[in-house]
Amino acid sequence: MSGGRPSAGWSLRRRIGLWLAVAVTALWLAAATVAGLVLRHEIDEVFDSALQEVAQRVLPLAYSELLSREDGGATQHMAPIGPHREYIAYVVRDKGGRELLQSSGADLMSIPGGLAPGYHSTDRLRTYTEAAVRGTIFVTTAEDLRHREAAVRRAVAALIWPLVALVPIALLGVWLTIRLSMKPVIAFRSAIEARGRGNLAPVAAAGLPDEIAPVAASVNALMERLRGALEAERSFTANSAHELRTPIAAALAQTQRLIAELPESPASDRARSIATALRRLSRLSEKLLQLAKAEGGGLLAETPAPLGLVLRHVIEEIDRQTDRGDALAVSITPDGGPLSDLDPDAFAILARNLIENALKHGAPDAPVSVRLAEGLFEVSNHGAVVPAEQLERLVRPFERGPTRSEGSGLGLAIAAAICRGAGLAFDLASPIPGEADGLRATVRFATPAPQA
Predict the structure, then answer these.
(1) Upstream peptide bond of 367 is cis (omega within 30 degrees of 0)
(2) Residue 415 domain-assigned (yes or no)
(3) What is the Cα gyration radius of the chain?
(4) Is 235 inside any structural domain?
(5) CA distance 301 to 340
(6) Which pLDDT value is given to residue 289?
(7) pLDDT at 378
(8) Are 447 and 307 found together in one domain?
């Protein structure tokens, strides 16, 4: 019987960090796309302007060439001044399409002729044609479109590549910002988790954001109401114990006196039957009150304490009442046993019920093993094997296993209720691990919660 913490999912910090990183990346990519489109338009305008400027600068040379040329002259090729990459080539033609002048890279581009003045585009070239001298000279400049595309790609890459460095930096900045901002919220969550095991002290709300502060106030108000309800229940339990035990004890005393005064007769036998019933009623009322305490709360102490002394006291009390202390094989770790924040009174009820149950239902000729070690408490007894389908039912009130011994069927139910309320693990195993018969009850202690 144990309560587990819910599995971790997508925390608020992780969600905010992820979405902010995705948003920053998406915005950067969108900005880079828009910038690339604008840049492409601007690059086209700049290179178109360069085509036009080259054509206009070549026109005076073309006009001089036409004046000095004799009919039938060969095309003049302008030799490059030095090694360079020629991105813009030009060719000068007359109105008949004959080439008069061309740059050194014009042959490689194969600039088409017969183009009307203005800009034109082909699959591989962007051209500009300028006419002069009343349409007798045509200057056509050309640029390879792959040059423009390469320039655009380099410019866009210059915008996108910083994203590779920006994303980790942005993630780190977002993570640090969220971590610092969420620190009070995480502390608030940890404080609530600590109070989940019985600590009902108010949760500190200092430093919480405005969205969470009302939650802290509501949680504190709820815990205050819960504290009041538990105090009222504990008060009712104590008063009920007094009110029930006193009249039962008085009736039992009167019955025992009546037995002593009556001679042996049917009336004295009936008086002894009444005394036996009153003893059973006394034990049943005690068990019911223990069950009410186990299910009512108040099972954790404010500070952890060793449980070894409590267990020794319980064993001594059982020995005085039943004279069966020699039937117990007790093992307690040194230094007073393990530390636990389980309330000593709750542990005493737990241990007493488990030990009494083992003594009552175990084999009379076999000892009952009681072991208190670091992190666990075990009680084992030999006897008939309890079928697996019955083990789960044994922790329910008034459920009994395969035994002829008298009992109320509340011992294991009380132990399970205490473990459930204190957040401890409670397991039953039959047969005893490594044995052929018997029953073992194991309680595993939780680590004491830090006090806020």
Answers:
(1) no
(2) yes
(3) 48
(4) yes
(5) 9
(6) 67
(7) 92
(8) yes
Phi and psi at residue 203, in whole multiples of 5°?
-90, 130
Tokens of 144: 């390879």
| Domain end residue (candidates: 112, 132, 150) | 150
Q: Looking at the structure, do residues 338 and 308 belong to the same domain, yes or no?
A: yes
- 375 within 8 A of 444, measured Cβ to Cβ: yes
Three-class SS state of 278: helix
Please count the structural domains in the chain.
Answer: 3
Q: Give the total residue count for the chain.
A: 452
Q: Which residue numbers in the chain have pLDDT < 50?
A: 1-8, 450-452
Q: Output the pLDDT for position 334.
A: 75
The set of residues, in sequence order, having a beta carbon less than 8 Å from that of 367 and lying 6+ positions away, is 327, 328, 329
Angle in degrees, CA 393, 395, 397, rounded to 5: 90
Dihedral, CA of residue 328, residue 411, residue 429 and residue 320, to nearest 10:
0
Compute φ and ψ for 242, nearest 5 degrees.
-65, -45
DSSP classification of residue 92? E
Adjacent-strand bridge partners of 121: 126
d(CA 323, CA 279): 18
Q: What is the DSSP letter of 425?
A: E
Element (H, E) at 119: strand 118-121
> Per-residue pLDDT tens for 425-436?
889 898 888 888
Structure-token pair, residue 87: 């991105």
CA–CA gap between residue 71 and residue 94 (Å, rounded) = 12
Q: What is the pLDDT of residue 452?
A: 43
Structure tokens given for 314: 């319980």
Domain that holds residue 381: 299-452
